[in-house]
Amino acid sequence: MHKENLYLEALDLLQQLIAIPSFSKQEKKTADLLAGFLERKGVKIERKLNNVWAFNRHFDPLLPTLLLNSHHDTVKPNTGYTRDPFAATVADDKLYGLGSNDAGGCLVSLLATFLYFYEQSGLKYNLVFAATAEEEISGKDGLELILPGLGELEAAIVGEPTLMQLAVAEKGLLVLDCVAKGRSGHAAREEGLNAIYEALPDIMWFQNFRFPEVSDHLGPVKMSVTMVQAGTQHNVVPDQCHFTVDVRLTDAYSMDEVLEVIRQNVKSEVSPRSMRLKPSSISLQHPLVKAGIALGRNTYGSPTTSDQALLSIPSLKLGPGDSARSHMADEFIYLHEIEQSIALYIDILERVVK
Predict the structure, then answer these.
(1) Which of 138, 295, 333, 336 is the most buried (most CB within 10 A)?
(2) Ramachandran quadrant class, 93 (left: phi over 0; alpha: psi -120 to 50; beta: rest)
(3) Is the peptide bond before 91 cis (omega within 30 degrees of 0)?
């Protein structure tokens, strides 16, 4: 299919997606739309809950497989909107609407790219396109749910707004619930062991400790104590102090390594809420990255978390739009960003799969 036709179809599909509310866990109607769109193209689809995926027509089980993935859920519109978030209006080369930038433009551009290659035979790689749910809440019924059905994957392009620059690394997220323990007593007497004071050295350690290894693209591991809770009333020495730590991981350490260092250095009990959102990276020598660089794209490390965190394979975050516009009031994407991204996705894959 001609690239101009791919762009026009992608734009029309994106306007339809914007018009349908698709908050996380409420994506059924946009999943229906995407499934119907692909089926009308003669593409055999798979579906599980609100996730829709498809393989290229000439799938060869002996070949490695590349995943093209983006999400169709959105956050809820904030109170600063001056436009109807579901109107999908075009003005001055901008398409306005909730999810236009994050990540509808990426989704329809990757879908257009998949359709460009869908009928082609003799490729060096299989392609699988997956439109997934619950990315905005890191939910378990999105990409993570369908990974077993995608088979063995060699690498992935994850569609998120990067101004079509190459995000070759992404920070992971580790949220820790910590408890410092003491003994209760009356504040008027010299009794008890104040759990707040027991927590203070640990809190100061989180503030001052620096992991020695620094990522080339993501910089240092960053730890921030973000919540502290203790005590029941003014005259009782608290026997527990609870505090929460936000840890932004880099590809310099595994999640287990970071957790082990923390537990060796603090007295408080440390419990991770989840070990799912791992840091990710892809080698600068990977064919996808080399192709992007050859086409004039720059590499960088992304501080924001996406579904890359759920992938244990090399993955490249790449897409139209600007991360700074994500979740903003009157969200928009430039029309030319969508058109150019389809051409660039195709050019990158031409250099890899043929």
Answers:
(1) 333
(2) left
(3) no
pLDDT at residue number 286: 97
Q: Are 14 and 108 in contact (CB under 8 A)?
A: yes
Query: How many Å apart are CA 127 and CA 78, to the nearest integer?
Result: 36
* Residue 152 tokens, joined: 């063995």
Taking the domains of the chain in order of start, what are their residue ranges? 3-170+279-353, 172-272
CA distance to 7, 269, 318, 327, per residue, from 338 (Å): 7, 48, 12, 18
Give the domain 172-272 fold.
Answer: Alpha-Beta Plaits (3.30.70)
Question: For 329, how many CA atoms within 13 A lie in the half-sphere containing its CB?
Answer: 6
| 172-272 shares the fold of 3-170+279-353 | no
Q: Coil, helix or strand for 70?
A: strand
Find, among 172, 167, 161, 164, the residue nearest to 301 by Cα: 167
Strand residues in the chain grouped as ranges (E): 46-48, 51-55, 65-71, 90-91, 94-96, 126-132, 155-158, 166-170, 172-181, 185-186, 222-230, 236-237, 240-249, 269-272, 280-281, 299-302, 315-317, 332-334
Count how many residues are written for the chain.
354
Taking only Cα atoms into account, the Rg of the chain, rounded to an integer number of angstroms, comes to 23
Mean pLDDT by 10 residues, the chain (354 residues): 88 98 98 98 98 98 97 96 96 97 98 97 97 96 97 97 97 96 93 96 98 95 97 96 97 94 98 92 96 97 91 96 94 98 98 96
CATH 3.40.630.10 fits 3-170+279-353, yes or no: yes
Check: CB of residue 194 under 8 Å from CB of residue 237.
yes
> How far is residue 31's CA from residue 85's CA, in Å, rounded to a whole number?
19
